[in-house]
Amino acid sequence: MTWSRHRLHTGDEFRAVTRGGVRSARSHVVVHLTLLTQGGEAPRVGFVVSKKIGNAVVRNRVTRRLREIIRPRLATMPPGSALVLRALPGIDEQPFAALRADVDTGLETAERKLARRTEGAR
């Protein structure tokens, strides 16, 4: 799978998701979710892993782990949706299964919040 069509590229795209969408926080990750367009675009994903997490090696490892957790979920996300995962300190010490559970529950909660928001706007 090529990630280029699923990536958020610009700071404006990241800001649109984090400021305009819904948020769901877990112990080591914050999930931001929104609908950017109502069309048939592929879901888009971005990762925010700051220097508070660790050095470049640690940050890249965290990003790879988050990418692998999200990869199977892309098929179930609605078209035109955009997701930002923001890592919190301590994420590098989480076992993979616990991190997957955090991301999954955060994403499910964000999807419910977004569905309520879009239903209320109709």
UniProtKB/TrEMBL annotation:
Q: Which InterPro entries match?
A: Ribosomal_Su5_D2-typ_SF, Ribsml_uS5_D2-typ_fold_subgr, RNase_P
- Which Gene3D superfamilies did the record assign? 3.30.230.10
Keyword annotations from UniProtKB, A to Z: Endonuclease, Hydrolase, Nuclease, RNA-binding, tRNA processing
> Which Enzyme Commission number(s) are listed?
3.1.26.5
* GO MF, one annotated term: tRNA binding
Instruction: Give GO BP annotations, semicolon-separated.
Output: tRNA 5'-leader removal
Highest taxon of source: Bacteria
What does UniProt give as GO cellular component? ribonuclease P complex
Q: What does it catalyze?
A: Endonucleolytic cleavage of RNA, removing 5'-extranucleotides from tRNA precursor
PANTHER family, per database record: RIBONUCLEASE P PROTEIN COMPONENT
Q: Which HAMAP family match?
A: RNase_P (MF_00227)
Question: What is the protein's quaternary organization?
Answer: Consists of a catalytic RNA component (M1 or rnpB) and a protein subunit.
Q: What function does this protein fulfil? A: RNaseP catalyzes the removal of the 5'-leader sequence from pre-tRNA to produce the mature 5'-terminus. It can also cleave other RNA substrates such as 4.5S RNA. The protein component plays an auxiliary but essential role in vivo by binding to the 5'-leader sequence and broadening the substrate specificity of the ribozyme.
Family listed: Belongs to the RnpA family.
Official protein name in the record: Ribonuclease P protein component
What is this organism's lineage?
Answer: Bacteria, Bacillati, Actinomycetota, Actinomycetes, Micrococcales
Gene name on record?
Answer: rnpA
